Amino acid sequence: MELFYFLFEDLNHWEIWDERGYTIGFMILLCASFLYNVLFYIVFGRKGMRFSTLGRWFLFGVCNVFTVFITSIAIEGFSVFELATLGDFYYEIWLFAIINACYAFVLYFLLSLAFKRFSIYSKFIPVKF
Amino acid sequence: MSKPKLYLFAIGGTGSRVLKSLTMLLASGINANTEKIIPMIIDTDINNGDVEKCRKLIQNYNQIHNTIYTGVPDEEDQGHFFRTKIMPPKEMNISGTDYGTLKDMVDYNSLSSKKLNTTKALFDLLYSNANKDMPLEKGFLGNPNVGSIVLKNVVESSEFKEFTQDFKQNDRIFIISSIFGGTGAAGFPLLMNVFRDENSGLNNKTYINNAIIGGVSVLPYFQVDVEKFNNGDSAINSSTFITKTKAALSYYNRNLKQLVNTMFYIGDTRQSNYENFDGGIEQKNPANFIELTGASSILEFLDYEPNAGTKEDLSQASRFFEYGVNQDSGSLHLTHLKQNDHIKQLLHFHYYNIYVSAYMNDALTNDKLAWKNELKLSNNYEKQAFFKQLASFTNQYYYRWLIELSLEKHDRKFLPFDLSIITNKETLTKDISGMMPAEIMIDEKKLFTLVTGLPANDGSNFFKKDRIKYDEEFSKIAKNIAAKPLGNKERTLSTLINQGISNIIDERFSF
Predict the structure, then answer these.
(1) Residue A13 confidence (pLDDT)
(2) CA geometry: angle B170, B173, B177, nearest 5 deg
(3) d(Cα B242, Cα B101) in Å, to the nearest integer?
(4) This prediction's pTM
(5) Which of residues 37-66 of A touch B (CB under 8 A)?
C-alpha cells in the first residue's frame, strides 16, 4: 500500500500508517469513488437525462474529492490516530487527506470508463467510445 | 395481390391544393393502401402559384422519402413519417400562352374560308364573344365550356401517353377537381369519358377501361372579391359558383354517374373569402379544411374494397359519399375529425415537427448525447442534407400549412394545434415567395398544451415538475434500434424518432 501512497511518507508514525492508515485511506478512496460512479451512472444515469452532462459529471467528481478528503481527515484523525480535536491533527494527516483527495478524482475518472457502459443516458460521458 | 399504383389527376388550382394537403397527411404517416402515388397535374395556367407551391412541397417530401426508404420493402415501416411514395408530379400543363385565345386555338377566322360554316355557327351559338376572346394563359377563369375544348389536348400530351403506357392491371385512378370553376369542372367529365371510352385507342385501353376510378368533386367553398369582377379587374365572379355547380351536378348525374365507381362530394356553406386573382403566380390561395377532407377522401378511396382489382370486382358499380363533421363549428379541432387514425397520426406528426424545429439541432450538436452516439451520427450531422431537408419541410411547409388552415379569412378554420409558438406568423402570412421559414419559440410547459382541446397528461405535483423529454425517450430506445439491421443511418434515425414519439404520445394522450 505504501507504494500507492509513495508521494506521502510519515516517518514519525510509520507503524500506524503501515498497519492501518494506508489501508483505511485507500478503502475510503475506493468506496467513495465507487459510490459516486454508481450514483452517477447507475442510479441517475439510468433514470433520466437530468445529470447527463459533462458539467454534472465533473460536479460528481468534485463531490467525490470532498467526500474523500473529509472522510480521510475524520477517520484517520479521530479513529486511526485517536486524536481528540481537529487542532491536535498532525500535519501529515492533512497532507495524506489532500493526496487521497487528488487520487479520488483520478480514480473517479478511471472508474467512469468502466461504469459508463452500465448507464443509458450518460454512456458517452466523460469520453465518447 | 400486390398493392395498386394510384394515378392521381389533380385538375386546376383546387387539385394542386388538395394534393398539398394529401402530401401533409402522407408525411404524417397515415397509411395509404397503395404502392405509390403518381400525381398528374392538369392546369393551363403554368405559372399558377398553387401549382408551384405543390411542386416544391412534393420535391421536398420526395427527397426525405427517398433518403429513408429507397430499397425498403413496402410492408416495412408502415405508419412512419413520409412512408408512402409520391412520384414527382407529371404536369400536363397545356400552356394557354401557346394558344392565345379560344378563337386562335380553333382557327375561328379561317372557318368560313374552309367552308365550315355550320361549325362556325355552332361555335357562335355555344360561346360568347367574351369566351372567344378570352386569353387562355391563366386557365378558363370559371368557364368550363371553354375548358372542355382546350383540355382535349391533354390527352395528346406525352405525359398522358406515358401514363397510359405505364398503367397496369389493378392500378387505380382518382380525379380531384372543383365543380364550380373552369379547369376542374371541364377536366373531370372529359377525363372520365376518355378513360371509359372503349374506342379510345389508348395504350392499355382494357386496363384503363376496367380500372376502378374515383373522384372528389369540390363544391363551392370560397368566394372572391366581387368588386374586382364588377370593375373589370378580374374575370372570376363567385356569385355564379352555385349556379354553375347546380348545372354541373345535373350534368354529372346524367352522364357521369355510370362511369365513376366512387365519388366524393365535398363542400361547405361556411365559405372562405379570397382575393380575386385571374390565376398566375399571384394565385396562391391558402390551404383550407375542405382541401384536407378532399385529401382524406383519396385515402378512403384507396381503402375502398381493397381486394377489388377492376370495376367488375366491386360489390356496387357506383357509390357516392359526402363528408361530415360532428359539430357545425367555425373553428375545428382534431377532436372534430372522425378518423381516429388520422387524429393520432397528425398528433404524432405535430410533436415530430416541434422536435425538428425546436430541439433537433441542439441534440445533433451535443457530442455527449446518448441517442446520437448510439446511432453513430457524425459530428456535423446537423449540417448535412438530410437534416436540412427535414427542417425545410417543417419550417417552410408544415407550419405555413397550419397557419393557412387557421386564417381568419376562412369562415371555418381548422385549428388543431396552438400556433402561438410561431413567432413570425404575421410575416409568414404576407410572404409571397412561400419560402420564408417559420420561427418557433416553445417552453417546456407549452409542450403539454399544444393540441387544441386535448391537453397532454401532466404528472407535475408539489414536489416534482413533469416534463416531456424527447431526447430522454430517444436515448432510452436508441440501443435497441441501433442494433436492428435497418440499412442506413437515416432510416435508423427515422425509426428512432417515430418510435420515440409514438411512446411519448401513448404516455401522454389517451384515445
Answers:
(1) 82
(2) 170
(3) 26
(4) 0.89
(5) 48-49, 52-54
Closest partner residue to A53 (CB to CB) among B368, B373, B476 is B368
Joined grid coordinates for residue B410: 376562412
| Unique residue bearing C-alpha cell 361549325 | B119
What are the counts of helices (DSSP H) followed by strands (DSSP E) for chain A? Answer: 4, 0
Which residues fall within 8 angstroms of residue B460, CB to CB, at 6 or more apart? B466
- Looking at residue B114, its pLDDT comes to 84
Asked if residues B19 and B8 have their Cβ atoms less than 8 Å apart, the reply is yes
Can you spell out the DSSP letters for B8-54? EEEEHHHHHHHHHHHHHHHHTT---SSSEEEEEEE-S-TT-HHHHHH
- Taken in order B59, B64, B68, B72, the sign of the CA dihedral is negative
Angle between helices B489-508 and B49-69 (to 10 degrees): 100
Indicate left, alpha or beta for B443 from its phi (over 0: left) and psi (-120 to 50: alpha): beta
Chain centroid offset of residue B334 CA: 18
CB contact under 8 Å between A122 and B370, yes or no, is yes
pLDDT of residue A78: 95
Using CA atoms, how far apart are residues B16 and B53, in angstroms rounded to an integer? 9
A123 residue type, one letter: K
Contact B364, B372 (CB under 8 A): yes
- Please compute the mean of the pLDDT values over residues B359-371 and round it to a whole number: 96
Tens of pLDDT, residues B385-424: 999 999 999 999 999 999 999 999 899 999 999 999 999 9
Q: State residue B84's pLDDT score.
A: 96
Give yes or no for residue B86 having a pLDDT over 70. Answer: yes
Those residues whose C-beta lies under 8 Å from the C-beta of residue B224, and which sit 6 or more positions away, are: B234, B236, B238, B273, B274, B275, B276
Q: Is B311 exposed, middle or buried (0-12, 13-18, 19+ CB in 10 A)?
A: middle
pLDDT band with cut points at 50, 70 and 90 for residue B277: low
By C-alpha distance, which of B16, B49, B47, B19 is closest to B284? Answer: B49
For residue B105, give the amino acid letter.
M
Cβ of A128 within 8 Å of Cβ of B471? The answer is: no
- With DSSP H G I counted as helix, E B as strand and the rest as coil, what are the percentages for chain A, rounded to 5? 70, 0, 30
Contact B475, B57 (CB under 8 A): no
Q: Which of A49, A53, A128 sits opposite B475 (nearest CB)?
A: A49
CB B178 within 8 Å of CB B184: yes
Beta-strand (E) ranges in B247-322? 262-266, 272-274, 319-322
- Taking an 8 Å cut-off on Cβ atoms, the answer to whether B369 and A124 are in contact is yes
With CB atoms and an 8 Å threshold, state whether B368 touches A125.
yes
Facing A124 at nearest CB: one of B370, B469, B476: B370
- Mutation to test the B interface, candidates A124, A128, A129, most B Cβ within 10 Å: A124
